[in-house]
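Protein data:
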Amino acid sequence: MSQAQQEMEEAVADWLRAYENHKRYLAATNRLFTVFTRSWGGSPRYIAAAFTDFRSALLRNSGYKPVEVNEVFPAQKSESK
């Protein structure tokens, strides 16, 4: 097997593992959102923003730096012109 072919196979395998982790992350996020909504006492209108803040707080409280949290959950910018 050539070096290029071996590198390609390793890159493909790495990419597929990342996809599986992404699927697990999405499933875990969906589960967290479901549990969060069950305990939500505020207006349904604000639940998405509250959940985003909750996830950001979880990351910060778990030791992630603010810049790392902002990379995962960037602030929404207004689309109005």
